Amino acid sequence: MSSARFQVYVTRSDMPECGIDLLKKECNVKTWKDASPVPREEFLKSIAGVDAIYCSLSDKIDEEVLDAAGPQLKVIGTISVGYDHIDLKECRKRGVKIGYTPNVLTDATAELTMALLLTTSRRLPEAQQDAKTGGWVSWAPKYMTGPGLNGATVGMVGYGRIGQAVARRVKSFNTAKILYFSRSERIEALEVGAIKVSFDELLKESDFVIVCAPLVPETKELFNKSAFEKMKRSAVFVNTSRGGLLDQDALIYALENNIIWGAGLDVTTPEPLPLDSPLFKLKNCVVLPHIGSATIGTRNTMSELTAANILAALHNAEMPAELK
Ligand code: NAP
What we know:
Blueprint: E1 6-10, H1 17-26, E2 27-31, H2 40-46, E3 52-55, H3 63-69, E4 75-78, H4 88-94, E5 97-99, H5 106-121, H6 124-132, E6 153-157, H7 161-171, E7 177-181, E8 195-196, H8 199-205, E9 208-211, H9 225-230, E10 236-239, H10 248-256, E11 262-265, E12 285-287, H11 296-314
Parallel strand pairs: 1-2, 1-3, 3-4, 4-5, 6-7, 6-9, 7-8, 9-10, 10-11, 11-12
The structure holds NADP nicotinamide-adenine-dinucleotide phosphate.
């Protein structure tokens, strides 16, 4: 009886239980024992013969993994909307389906993007540190000042699900103008009056630049030395997409030399960011540990959707969120 059940491998022990419980009803679930990404060697050894892999963005899914799993592998379910860790071409070549988690994390990620933007522009970590360590001497007119959103021009790089959700929130702060850069014109931009512009125009005009585009070959290190130099000296750069969209050394140089005003990063290269990174030493940079979608409810829903994707693929049914 049990030999007829599907075999699923889960790459860490702390995936939200609600999704794992759904899988367990119909499948034999083998899970890496720790609440940390499975080491590569262990991963390759453990997936031989499985029908499905439930993974996260920490797990690189490439030719070697697909070979190690074997030709019976039917589906990869990633608990993320980003898919830059998966070799799509190789999966497609072998007929391995990919499930991901679009939409369900859009609001949580947009909220975090706004939180990071305001934390950076209003210097919250620096201000709190100062208050705790005696730097708060009296109210002072120029103390801890930073750029405001009221009347500002905000540039969105990537205007998909998350970009639009951020733009709606940005609009409610009485911004003057919202610009966006993406390959196609978005009808949804009409809702907030966002204007499509070239990348260079967006850099030149924006007081805040927010990155919401996926990491694909065309966006890799889109933000390089020349891009930061085109931005306003007063500009705030916010990235909640993927660290690979920027040349991190160029950002460090821009922050150290006041070429831009500040940066808020939820994503870095590599992750986790080493403790000796210059980014941690810069007062004009806020670094968060990739927590864009980290609301309790969102993570539970993401886990359920990942499981639902896997189960549908295993039953040759339509997947709720297949990456095509
Ligand atoms: P989406 O709906 O697919 O939106 C992506 C946007 O980027 C679209 O506007 C797309 O428009 C644009 N784009 C794609 N390729 C581009 C290119 N070569 N040049 C310029 N623009 C390009 O995706 P989403 O759901 O909003 O998610 C966006 C990304 O956010 C994900 O890929 C993921 O990496 C990241 N993310 C991070 C977190 C976190 O925890 N920090 C959480 C969720 C998502 P066109 O196709 O018209 O160019």
